[in-house]
Design a protein that fits this description.
With about 450 residues, the protein is mainly β. Helix content is about 5%, strand content about 50%.
Length: about 450
């Protein structure tokens, strides 16, 4: 905790200092700002508090002090690059029953360590290609299937190979073959001590596939296709559900512009097989699952950069029919679409049907904010609602889960260096979250998170 107190004092003193300036020195300027070598780091300190726990298995009220520090370096020559990044993620203030796991704690981990090469005219004149090998983070397409989570205190790392290409006509694509890293340690005593243990990758968990996008496929609309294969099997010390999933997606998006309408449509179909439980003798079930995201918005002209949009997300659940119907978002993020992670972590891309209204604004270069209202139903009444773990196998508790109001505000206290952030969620529980057999009787949920991030 001494490190946490020192970090708090340092960040607050910088934020309150009358001499705080936009030209605060960075690691890059400290080494003379060479054009071929980039060095950067960050420290994020966030306090989270929650009342009215919506998830099963955790204490009714919770709090967490999350500290994440990163340091990255990359050398990029004319055709060759080499780089790496360290994450140090720790959490404090947890008590018996707190929602602390390897999602919050991963001490001193080398998440990235890679080499790469760039090739001009690889596929003909005007084309380019790049290859990367080693440990890396990935943000592909809409990030709903493959992402390096940023709100969560830890991130997703992948070990393998990545290939990027661009044709003379502007089509871009990314192909990957990776072994997703399993964050370690994952046992509660070691997590509480923030023990340093190298994350594990192996051929027991493989993710491979591709995303291809065509800008201006129709007017200003970008078209995108993706395919990913997840292959999972039991390891020597880790039982799994032996997921063997094919995930096919299509997406069309027109980016927001002042004075214009924009939209995004994404549909994903998932099929394959999954075991009905962790036991090696559990039956294998065929998978038939799907997800759809729709939104349409308008950005008003003017300095406020205000955008108003309506949106809809639906992810299938596991119903009474034969097989398995619950959508698996693989390694996708949840924050941009649905809700914060952290100790809230209740709303994700599984068994949910939710329309919403969103308002965003970014007046000036230092301030941005958004607010979202959404109503939430279960896609299947007999499956657990989203990622809460709350379930009524009989389906008699209905399908309405509740109303969620979420807001975020960010402000650069020192432009380019120190930014403050506030996140809040109010979940007014509906009939299902009140009456399902295992629903926590904790009242409505209130979540608040305040953070400071220094980038240097």
């Amino acid at each position: 905790m001494a490190y946490v107190r020192t970090t708090c004092i340092l960040l607050l003193s910088i934020a309150c200092s009358p001499s705080a300036r936009a030209d605060t020195p960075t690691l890059q300027t400290a080494i003379g700002d060479p054009h071929d070598f980039k060095l950067s780091g960050s420290v994020r300190l966030r306090y989270e508090t929650l009342e009215g726990q919506p998830r099963t298995g955790f204490r009714s009220s919770d709090e967490q002090l999350a500290l994440r520090s990163t340091l990255s370096a990359e050398y990029r020559g004319e055709t060759f690059l080499i780089g790496g990044e360290i994450y140090d993620s720790r959490a404090y203030l947890d008590k018996a029953g707190s929602a602390v796991s390897a999602n919050e704690v991963n001490a001193l981990e080398l998440v990235q360590a890679y080499v790469g090469i760039d090739v001009k005219d690889a596929l003909g004149n005007g084309t380019s290609a790049g290859f990367q090998f080693g440990r890396m983070t990935l943000n592909l397409g809409s990030r709903r299937l493959v992402a390096a989570d940023d709100y969560r205190n830890t991130t997703n790392g992948y070990t393998g190979v990545r290939a990027d290409f661009k044709t003379a006509g502007g089509t871009v694509g990314t192909l990957i073959y990776t072994l997703p890293q399993i964050r370690l340690p994952d046992d509660p005593p070691s997590i509480q001590k923030s023990e340093v243990r190298w994350d594990r990758e192996s051929f027991d968990l493989r993710l491979w596939g591709a995303t291809i996008a065509r800008p201006k496929a129709i007017g200003k609309v970008t078209g995108e296709l993706s395919y990913y294969r997840l292959q999972e099997r039991d390891g020597p010390t880790r039982a799994t559900r032996n997921r063997n999933l094919h995930t096919i997606g299509a997406r069309a998006i027109r980016d927001p512009e002042p004075g214009s309408w924009d939209f995004e449509i994404e549909g994903i179909h998932q099929f394959g097989h999954i075991r009905s439980g962790l036991a090696s003798t559990a039956a294998s079930l065929s998978v038939d699952a799907w997800f759809v995201h729709l939104d349409a918005g308008y950005t008003f002209p003017g300095a406020a950069k205000m955008r108003v949009s309506v949106e809809y997300d639906r992810a299938s659940g596991d119903g009474p029919k034969r097989g398995f119907g619950r959508f698996d978002t693989l390694f996708g993020m949840r924050r941009a679409d649905l809700a914060p992670a952290g100790i809230y972590n209740a709303i994700g891309r599984a068994n949910i049907s939710t329309p919403g209204v969103r308002i965003e604004a970014a007046p000036g270069t230092r301030f941005d904010t958004f607010a979202v209202y959404r109503a939430m139903w279960l896609a299947e009444n007999t499956d657990a609602f989203s990622t809460t773990g709350v379930r009524d196998a009989s389906g008699l508790s209905g399908s309405f889960a509740g109303h969620q109001l979420e807001a975020r505000l960010r402000y650069w206290l020192v432009p380019g260096f120190l930014r403050g952030e506030m996140n809040g969620v109010w979940l007014a529980k509906g009939r299902f979250l009140k009456t399902a057999p295992n629903a926590p009787q904790t009242g409505d949920t209130h979540y608040l998170a305040n953070g400071l991030t220094a980038t240097f």
